[in-house]
UniProtKB/TrEMBL annotation:
This is Cysteine desulfurase. Residues 2-362 form the Aminotransferase class V domain. It comes from Caldisericum exile (strain DSM 21853 / NBRC 104410 / AZM16c01). GO terms for molecular function: cysteine desulfurase activity; iron-sulfur cluster binding; metal ion binding. Its cofactor is pyridoxal 5'-phosphate. The gene is iscS. The keyword Isomerase does not apply. The lineage of its organism: Bacteria, Pseudomonadati, Caldisericota/Cryosericota group, Caldisericota, Caldisericia. It catalyses: (sulfur carrier)-H + L-cysteine = (sulfur carrier)-SH + L-alanine.
Length: 384
């Protein structure tokens, strides 16, 4: 299959798989304390090496890195954990309207527990309304959660400006960077982010592992009981092979991948605009992730396009993977001011280092045939 759904998940790099398999065969004990056995201590050392390596890549200390079982659980731990631990300071939380479902559903759940939530809007390209954010801050605001980049349209937020506004009020800032790191370089030693979420399976690492940076001094309440793992922040044994795989994914990353992906994205965009009529870009080519391109094909439904492409051996999605089980219009596109019709006509192409221009050429040929066929029967164009 030609796979253009890499924003949902990427194919693990073979070197990542090899490293994990070797580790699983040789280091199968759980990470142990000094009161345990040699193999457990060796595993603990390997995990600490991975923790310190990832921390160094981010410009922080190893004791500020928490391993979870997914990016979703990292977001839950950051938001719920901070809210519950600091509710005596206030009960107001701010998030943008285009956050990932793991953030939106988390703050929605907190609202049922007595917290107040304000949602900040975005402009037509998906950039957070800075003035609206500034006005939303209250005396009882304790947490702001804004994504680094959007998972559907790829828009990269001005986190430095957002952080400045939030931190001058003494408020904690959580950034969901699950789709953004390492496509967007982040040096946490030079920015004012308090918590940051990373998801290795988005950049050729394994599933079943999330990474949460928690700056020293940021108090979280433990959400899962039954153990003292991860500095007593979360219970349950660490997914040790996945942690090793995450470290390897970081090791393998280079700016050359970013450059290659951006070149592919521009190539795809130009081919679509040249070969197919009535195609609209959702978001922006500038200040956007190098591997995500979201477009609307006017007058037809994205679900039909995706199904027809699948028959041709091409995998795409109409939006976030977490929403793909229903037929609702994208909350991201609606928040950007798109109509329901245009939102339903959207397709997200998310590219990989394994994709080629030849695959794009084939895809555009098939896509042109599909779009023309669907428009012939579109009720929006008088078809039947």
């Amino acid at each position: 299959m030609i796979y253009f759904d890499n924003a949902s998940s990427t194919k693990p790099d073979p070197a990542v798989v090899d490293e994990m398999c070797e580790f699983t065969s040789e280091y199968y004990a759980i990470p142990s304390s000094i009161f345990s056995h040699t193999l457990g201590l060796q595993v603990a050392d390997k995990i600490q090496e991975a923790r310190d390596y990832i921390a160094h890549k981010l410009g922080v200390s190893g004791n500020e890195i928490i391993f979870t079982s997914s990016g979703t659980k990292a977001n839950n731990l950051a938001i719920k954990g901070y809210a519950f631990a600091n509710k005596d300071k206030g009960k107001h939380i701010i998030a943008s309207k285009i956050e990932h479902i793991s953030v939106l559903e988390t703050v929605k759940k907190l609202a049922l527990s007595g917290f107040n939530v304000s949602y900040v809007g975005v402009d037509e390209k998906g950039f957070v309304d800075i003035d609206e954010l500034r006005k939303a801050i209250r005396n009882d605001t304790i947490l702001v959660s804004i994504q680094l980049a959007n998972h559907e349209v790829g828009t990269i937020q001005n986190i430095e400006e957002i952080a400045k506004i939030v931190k001058e009020k003494g408020i904690i800032l959580h950034v969901d960077a699950a789709i953004a790191v390492p496509y967007v370089p982040v040096d946490l030693s030079k920015c004012q982010i308090d918590m940051l979420t990373i998801s290795p399976h988005k950049f050729y690492g394994p599933k079943g592992i999330g990474i949460l940076f928690v700056r020293n001094g940021t108090k979280l309440e433990k959400l899962i009981d039954g153990g003292f793992n991860e500095f007593n922040i979360r219970a349950g044994h660490e997914n040790t092979p996945a942690i090793i795989g995450a470290k390897k994914a970081f090791e393998l990353w280079s700016e050359n991948i970013t450059d290659y992906l951006r070149d592919l994205k521009v190539y795809l965009y130009e081919k679509l605009m040249h070969e197919i009529s009535d195609v609209q870009l959702n978001g922006t080519l500038d200040n956007s992730l190098p591997h995500i391109l979201n477009v609307t094909f006017k007058y037809i439904e994205g679900e039909s396009i995706a199904l027809r492409l699948d028959f041709e051996g091409i995998g795409v999605t109409t939006g976030s993977a977490c929403y793909s089980r229903n037929l609702q219009a994208s909350h991201v596109l609606l928040s950007m001011g798109k109509s329901h019709e245009d939102s339903h006509g959207s397709i997200r192409f998310s590219l990989s280092k394994y994709n080629t221009k030849e695959e794009i050429d084939y895809t555009v040929v098939k896509l042109k045939e599909i779009v023309e066929d669907l428009r012939r029967i579109s009720p929006l164009l008088g078809g039947n």
